[in-house]
Specification:
This protein has 17 helices and 12 strands. By secondary structure, the protein is α+β, with helices and mostly antiparallel strands.
């Protein structure tokens, strides 16, 4: 067992393809205050630099839900050294692209520029993270901006549905909260709540400074010491894992449906709880998700697809599309399918979806498995196209695993997953397990929860 005591065993005589061994290594250095610097060098003339922080919606209270996303907006409104106008002018003059995003477990602030502007990018990021000038007036000014953003998000069925899914799956858990927060919180959050969140969670030991592209690691470390070295370490550091352990996520399961006959299509999601990102089962679950595949009626004909799910749904005229997904957090995850169809007879879609989702508990074809693993590898490499994608991958993995997993190792872990491993994880997480359902649109023909729950142990294979 070359990959650890809990990993799947590699096939006999397995060798890593030599072309993968030429991957540029990710270098990591820890500063004196606990902040980590991780870089991957590619001579492309441009660089992406960002700070990934173990701070997201999960670490908010019900009264402060939305504060992490609120900060994402306010952090660029000026610092003690620069007004908002001066910051914007400098960014424009440098040709820098500055951006940020918030998720349920992390927040990222990053910039892209040409290689020669690397020192300025690091300095700007350090300034906005350590010296952001958050005033009561700037908080008031930003409320309407975020409310308009909420209106736009609510117009996107996919975004809205997955918020409902998390609320259904993780009731009474921090992961069930939305990233933007409820409207009443957006209207009532105060400057003191924002400052308190920064002081509690924006700690150097929970940050990773990432550089990808045309970047020298030693230069990045020197710049980090210069601009982030004054970031005071926490005398009693609590990691994100400590917070998660104190308030763990657990699936309650549930069914939430928004009946809206004005919508032309019905959108629905079925999801089961799986494991955390660092769990030994994570790779086998990724292979299972790839095995289910996707379906698009306007794309490749389903009967020509290698996915059994696509083949089955191609015979259901009112099914428009389906995609499988696997979302993993520190200590839990959601695995499932998202389908779009036209009413009536949504039960025909649900019937095929449940059969093909539960089928791997009993039968996994070796040819289908080989296709799924090849597809997963292709998607993994395609997701690393460009310095921004590489930087995001480094930041996410450093926070999730404490290291960057090399592509040869990841491919070896994928190759180690055989049919028995897929059947094992499918049986463990899907068979006769409670699921979560979220649906919206003309969903009156979608079968009820009990009908779906019975199909998780239907022995007709």
């Amino acid at each position: 067992r070359m990959l650890g005591a809990n990993a799947e065993p590699l096939p006999p005589g397995y060798e890593v393809p030599k072309r993968l061994l030429r991957q540029v290594p990710t270098r990591v250095t820890r500063l004196g205050n606990g902040m980590r610097v991780a870089t991957e060098s590619h001579p492309m003339g441009a660089v992406t630099v960002g700070v990934w922080i173990d701070a997201g919606t999960r670490y908010e209270t019900p009264s402060s839900n939305g504060v992490a996303h609120f900060l994402e907006h306010l952090i660029f409104k000026g610092t003690r050294a620069r007004t908002q106008g001066q910051l914007e002018v400098q960014v424009e003059n440098l040709g820098m692209h500055l951006n940020a995003y918030t998720s349920r477990e992390m927040t990222a602030y990053f910039g892209r520029a040409v290689k020669s502007q690397l020192p300025q990018v690091v300095e700007v990021l350090a300034d906005i993270l350590q010296n952001s000038n958050i005033t009561a007036q700037s908080v008031e000014n930003e409320r309407d901006v975020i409310l308009r953003e909420m209106e736009e998000v609510n117009k996107q069925p996919g975004e809205l549905l997955f918020d409902y899914l998390h609320g259904s799956a993780y009731q009474y858990c921090p992961l069930g909260k939305t990233i933007l927060g409820p409207e009443e919180n957006i209207r009532s959050l105060t400057r003191d709540q924002l400052i308190s969140y920064i002081q509690t969670h924006y700690k150097p030991h929970r940050m990773v400074l990432v550089g990808a592209g045309d970047v020298d690691h030693d230069e990045m470390v020197n710049l980090a010491n210069k601009h982030f070295g004054g970031f005071q370490p926490d005398p009693n550091p609590m990691t994100a894992f400590d917070y998660a352990k104190a308030d763990p996520a657990f699936l309650t399961g549930g069914d939430i449906r928004l009946q809206d006959d004005s919508m032309r299509q019905a959108h629905f999601v079925f999801a089961w709880e799986t494991c955390g990102a660092a769990h030994p089962d994570a790779v086998a679950i990724a292979v299972l998700y790839s095995l289910l595949g996707t379906y698009e009626r306007s794309g490749i004909p389903g009967d020509c697809s290698s996915s059994r799910m696509a083949q089955a749904l191609s015979k259901v005229p009112n099914c428009k599309s389906l995609s499988s997904f696997s979302t993993m957090y520190m200590d839990t995850g959601l695995f499932g399918v998202y389908a779009i169809g036209e009413a009536p007879e949504l039960d025909d879609i649900a019937h095929e979806v449940m059969i093909e989702t539960i089928r791997p508990c009993f039968k996994v074809d070796e040819i289908d498995l080989a296709r799924a693993k090849a597809s997963l590898k292709t998607n993994t490499l395609a997701a690393l196209d460009g310095s921004l994608a590489i930087a995001e991958d480094i930041g996410r993995q450093m926070l999730s695993y404490g290291r960057r997993i090399p592509v040869p190792e990841l491919f070896a872990r994928i190759d180690a997953v055989d049919a028995e491993a897929v059947k094992r994880v499918a049986s463990k997480y899907l068979y006769d397990r409670d699921l979560s359902v979220a649906a919206m649109g003309p969903v009156h023909d979608l079968p009820d929860y009990n009908w779906l729950r019975r199909r998780t142990f239907w022995l007709s294979y």
